[in-house]
Amino acid sequence: SSSSSSSLFSPPSSSSSSSSSSRSIEFIGDSVTCAYGALGTFPCMASQFNQDVLQGYVGITARALQARFHAECWSGKGVVRNYGAPNTTSPDPFPIYWNRTLGNLVSPTWDFSSWLPDAVVIHLGGNDYSTAPAPPVSTFDAGYLRLLDSVSAAYAHPVHIFAICGPMYGDPCAQVHRVLSAWSALNDGRGHFVDAEFPLTPDLLGCDYHPNVAGHQAMAQRLIPAMRQVLGW
């Protein structure tokens, strides 16, 4: 691409729209994928007024790759345990909601034949271990594996799955990497780990210790080349 880095990382405009692209990406995640607090200046509290998916790593990545995207994110949700849950697992972690058309309604379920992504990006796991009591490693691993299987089985064609991990403190990146690698070995190498573990220094912090726009740019700078290499974009 001949686009400059400044245009890739700037907020979207009519001239940078990728709505006509044949490339499609689905993003699945928690508050980081929602760009929670990304527009705030630390220290601050996150709200709907300082959150913008289009200025987070999701929008930055989609614009850089000239791809349409769907994003399903829910702050505080985990793979098997949500933020602050009193037990090692929660009855309603993120995978419970993934096949719904509207998050708060059990039906109707989403028609996965209506929109077919070329790749799915997952950013989940930080909430599982953000507070005590943490889930057993085997429980988290089994839950993450079920999620990978569910995402893969939902689509009629083989999709590449990118698991990006970091930069929040305590993200279980070693576990995610291990489970994804094992799954990928059994699924034609379609699983790809993206390491976004880097220090959230003050210049990269938004509200509630989440990444700001610059922090999201740093995440995207790791995800974009990985996706280009695998997808040939």
Short description:
By secondary structure, the protein is an alpha/beta fold.
How far apart are the termini? 9 Å
Query: Could you give the count of β-strands?
Result: 5
Mean pLDDT: 92
Strand order of the biggest β-sheet: 2-1-3-4-5
Order of helices and strands: HEHEHEHEHEH
Based on CA atoms alone, the radius of gyration comes out at 17 Å
Instruction: Give me the secondary-structure category.
Output: alpha/beta
Beta percentage is 5-15%
Give the oligomeric state.
single chain
Description of the structure:
The chain is an alpha/beta fold and 233 residues long. Helix content is 29%, strand content 12%. It is built from six helices and five strands; from the N terminus they run H-E-H-E-H-E-H-E-H-E-H. It has helices at residues 5-9, 57-64, 94-97, 137-154, 173-185, 213-231, and strands at residues 24-29, 68-73, 119-123, 160-165, 191-195. Strands 2-1-3-4-5 form a five-stranded parallel sheet, sandwiched between helices. The chain is globular, with a radius of gyration of 17 Å. The model is unreliable at 1-8 and 12-18 (pLDDT under 50).
Keywords:
6 helices; disordered N terminus; 233 residues; alpha/beta; single chain; 5 strands; five-stranded parallel sheet; globular
Topology:
Elements lengths: L4 H5 L14 E6 L27 H8 L3 E6 L20 H4 L21 E5 L13 H18 L5 E6 L7 H13 L5 E5 L17 H19 L2
Parallel strand pairs: 1-2, 1-3, 3-4, 4-5
Helix pairs in contact: 2-6, 4-5
